[in-house]
Specification:
- Helices cover 31% and strands 23% of the residues.
- By secondary structure, it is α/β, with parallel strands linked by helices.
- It folds into two domains: 233 residues, P-loop containing nucleotide triphosphate hydrolases (Rossmann fold); 73 residues, no CATH class.
- The protein has an eight-stranded mixed β-sheet with strand order 6-7-8-3-9-10-12-11, sandwiched between helices. It has a four-stranded antiparallel β-sheet with strand order 2-1-4-5, with helices on one face.
- A hairpin with a 2-residue loop joins strand 1 and strand 2.
- Helix 4 crosses helix 5.
- The longest helix has 18 residues.
- The protein is globular and about 65 Å long.
- The protein starts with 7 loop residues before the first strand and ends in a 6-residue tail after the last strand.
């Protein structure tokens, strides 16, 4: 992993969804750096802003979602200010994304080969169909799928194979950054493990930088170099993966880790966190986690904490000021 200048920097990013009853602030003041060759695990409960953050990076938010403020710097270029042509050139060739359910991302009316040809020629119309299919065959074979299956349709493939197809479509243009949004949600446990192993191999083979968005802490434990824990649209904690698992600082991170089922069965009852994630139309004042926090203080109810550095990582908690 290159720890020089960041490949990607988010600076005070704020993403909003205006709706009839107010404005949902799905991402609220997030700042984050990502380095070449790094795998960043982005974790948290549903509704905490993980997927919105991932979609914001290549500007794939659908209306009424919008980037209200902040910057997204890819190698020094601000994606937020890019024009349509520059943005289309960036997507796929530099930043690629795979989604939760590949079946909804693949058109059932077209063959797998058609999807690859369309992807390649959208970025370079000079490439012939034969050349594009040749590239696709090479990518598929590296993913363990026979080139002959380019003639088949999405419904003829298993969930695991469709997810590999999505990876192939993401890799065909040799991007620097791959954003994987809950890529194992629709897979069974065995295929999920194979998929994560494949991601690790591809990361080394292509020198990929990966953002792995997931609610499964086991996934990030297996693959991630660093972990960012999100809650209520903000960063609760960020740091090296091993450090986060060994010495979690934020009470929310501690709660997430305590909620992982114990396969040794030496705990009589599954631990859970009280309460629910906040209403992002009207979030609580101060620390957004304070209504659920077992260590809440008066300051927590009044002031939003910044990220405090401690033990090699950072936590947005007044316990560490």
């Amino acid at each position: 992993m290159d720890t020089g200048s960041p490949m990607l920097s988010l600076e005070d990013l704020k993403v909003e969804f205006p709706i009839s009853i107010g404005t949902v602030t799905a991402v609220n003041g997030v700042s984050l750096d990502l380095f070449q060759g790094e795998v960043m695990g982005l974790v948290g409960e549903s509704g905490c802003g993980k997927s919105t953050l991932g979609l914001s990076i290549p500007r794939l938010l659908r209306p009424p979602g919008r980037i209200a403020s902040g910057r997204i710097l890819y190698r020094g270029r601000d994606i937020v200010r890019m024009g349509k042509r520059e943005l289309l050139s960036l997507r796929g060739s530099k930043i690629a994304m795979i989604f939760q359910d590949p079946l909804t991302s693949l058109n059932p009316l077209y063959s797998i080969g058609h999807h690859f040809v369309e992807t390649v020629r959208a970025h370079d119309g000079r490439v012939s169909r034969r050349e594009a299919l040749g590239r696709a065959a090479s990518v598929l074979e590296s993913l363990g799928i026979a080139a002959e299956r380019l003639d088949e349709f999405p419904h003829q493939m298993s969930g695991g194979m469709r997810q590999r197809i999505m990876i192939g479509l993401a890799l065909i243009l040799s991007p620097d950054l791959l954003i994987a949004d809950e890529p194992t949600t629709a897979l069974d446990v065995i295929v999920e493990a194979q998929f994560l192993d494949l991601l690790d191999v591809l990361r080394k083979q292509y020198n990929l930088t990966i953002i792995l968005i997931t609610h499964n802490l086991g996934n990030v434990a297996q693959l991630a170099d660093r972990i960012t824990v999100m809650y209520g649209g903000t960063i609760a904690e960020v740091g090296p993966a091993q450090s986060i698992f060994d010495r979690p600082l934020h009470p929310y991170t501690q709660g997430l880790l305590a909620s992982i089922p114990n396969i040794r069965l030496d705990e009589p009852k599954l631990k859970t966190m009280a309460g629910s994630p906040p209403d992002l139309v009207d979030p609580p004042a101060g620390c957004v986690f304070h209504p659920r926090c077992p260590q809440v203080m008066d300051t927590c109810r009044q002031d939003r904490p910044p990220l405090f550095a401690r033990n090699g990582h950072k936590a947005a908690c007044w316990l560490y000021r």
